[in-house]
Write a structure and sequence with these properties.
151 residues, 4 helices, 4 strands, alpha/beta, single chain
């Protein structure tokens, strides 16, 4: 698997679905407290990369509070991990199936980190062709790297 975007900074953001297996990372976050688009018929077939799905997930007070606490922590923490000699810092964000909430949250984190000059490689483990592909190895290895790195 070719990785893009992480070599220069060592930051990796990883979305996954708990039902496909746990992810290995330096930090794992569970975002199943956010509203689930799976239960909304017009959103269920989409992914967290779709604007309507992302808006549904992110446009509520719980998401606002979550990001207001998380982003300053990451901005403070990541450089310290890397300064201690870690080659990379990996943050995994999980939801039930790895299609909606975790994807939207990882995309938002990546965008916010870019705003402060920190680029990251993004992996959506449980997204594949048409946004729906089961992970291999019981969900313990990424299926494909989908970078959102912008140059």
């Amino acid at each position: 698997m070719k990785e893009t975007g992480a070599d220069a900074t060592g930051i990796r953001l990883f979305s996954f679905g708990f039902k496909h297996g746990m992810a290995e990372a330096d930090m794992v976050l569970d975002v199943r407290f956010l509203p689930n688009p799976y239960w909304v018929p017009e959103l269920s077939g989409g992914t967290g990369r779709d604007p309507a799905v992302a808006a549904y997930v992110l446009a509520n007070p719980a998401a606002d509070e979550f990001f207001s606490r998380l982003l300053p922590l990451l901005i403070w923490l990541i450089p310290r991990y890397l300064a201690e000699g870690k080659r990379a810092f990996t943050l995994a964000v999980g939801c039930t199936g790895g299609q909606h909430r975790s994807v939207a949250v990882v995309e938002k984190i990546a965008a916010e980190l870019r705003q402060v000059g920190m680029s990251a490689a993004v992996v959506h483990r449980d997204l594949g062709e048409n946004g729906r592909e089961a992970a291999v190895d019981g969900g313990r290895r990424p299926v494909a790297m989908q970078s959102t790195e912008r140059t």
